[in-house]
Amino acid sequence: MPFNLVGQQVTEAVNNSTVFLLPPGQITFEVDGEQVSLVSGQDYVNPGTKADGTNGTAYVYKKGSTKPKPKDDNDGRTIDEGTDIAKSLYSFLPPEVVNEYAKNWVKSGDANVAMGMTRQTKPWKDNFGKLMRDDGTLIMDELSFIGVKASYKQTLSEVGINDFSDFEDEFDDMATGYGTDDPVSAEEFQTRIDLVYAGVKDQIPEVEKLFRERYNISLDAPTIFGALINPKIQDKVLIGDIATLQLQAQATSRGFTTSFARFQELRNLGLTTEAAKGLYEGAGSFISQAKSIGRDLDISTLESATVGDTSSQQRIARIQAEIQSSGGLNIGAAKKGDEVIGLTEN
After folding, report:
1. Would 6 be classed as within a structural domain?
2. How many CB atoms lie within 10 A of CB 323?
3. What are the residues whose beta carbons fall under 8 Å from the beta carbon of 196, sequence distance 6 or more?
4. pLDDT averaged over the chain?
5. Which residues contact 56 (CB under 8 A, 6 or more apart)?
């Protein structure tokens, strides 16, 4: 059965353009238990695909005979020569992939064929395996893949993150489109990070302070931001705690203080950073209004109401009605759908 340019067996007839007698770069091959060899001056060598995914140029096999070519018959080609060619054509490849390419060039003597063979090796798959679709074609060439990931790293470095070890898997998935052929572009990633950073940068100093007070551990701002955007880093930093401290930062930055355990409880009850921001921004004004009509209201009641406690919500509603009837501000619950996300003046 013939083979296509990516080494798959196909049912089409050999046409020496896209379908060949043997897999890329090979002049002998066992097919259905029988050794098949190319005939010198007659059969074409399967050229495979180039680094950019385009088809290689087929050529007639002119050496040897109908007998299998001896494994050590490489016309004097050496690993050093293959390495030089790899460094000339594919200088961006990791050393282990360059080594595989050099060995395959010694076997084939053809740069394109050697690359096609290299893409079947473990070192290549370890570095670029996500580039290859199920049908054997490439989503993009290796250089483009490396370039896109480099742009992601540049974006993170702009917000102070320079250790990318915990992001490598995510970079691979984004650059290859999570298997959907829709890669995340450099521009799209830049926009995502800019939006997230703009939303949390003012909280980072408070989170840093609270983390130092709770654990006596000093974390720099880039590590904290990295933990906010990457669960792997958050797990390293103490799972869940940084999210709780982010809520606490919303409170302490506005003059409200309570225990870490309380904020952990609120987070477990569903209090989000967005809801915490709305809650603590409006809390001071509401508590002051309640005091002006003789009502004693503390922050814990507002917190409980925000996470859905019915009795707290009813108490706030009564106080709100009294404030409104006395001509004061009408402060109610801000909602997104059915979720309470803070307080607002009506």
Report:
1. no
2. 19
3. 228, 229
4. 76
5. 5, 24, 47, 48, 49, 50, 110, 112, 113, 116
pLDDT at 98 over 90: yes
Instruction: Flag whether the pTM goes above 0.85.
Output: no
- Please state at what angle helix 186-200 crosses helix 221-229, rounded to 10 degrees: 110
Give the tens place of pLDDT for each residue, 1-20. 788 888 888 888 998 888 98
Residue 88 lies in a domain: yes
Residues 122 and 159 reside in one and the same domain: no
Q: Are 289 and 264 contained in the same domain?
A: no
Residues 156 and 122 both lie in one domain? no
CA nearest to 246, candidates 270, 218, 219, 274: 274
Nearest-angstrom CA–CA distance, 20 and 18: 7
Q: How far is CA 188 from CA 143, 155, 159, 175, 222, in A?
A: 20, 11, 16, 11, 21
Domain that holds residue 224: 201-268
Q: How many domains does the chain have?
A: 4
| Residue 333 burial (C-beta neighbours within 10 Å; 0-12, 13-18, 19+) | buried
Q: Are 33 and 26 in contact (CB under 8 A)?
A: no
**Helix count and strand count (H, E) for the chain:** 15, 8
CA angle 132, 134, 135 (to 5 degrees): 95
Asked, for residue 37, whether it belongs to a domain, the answer is no
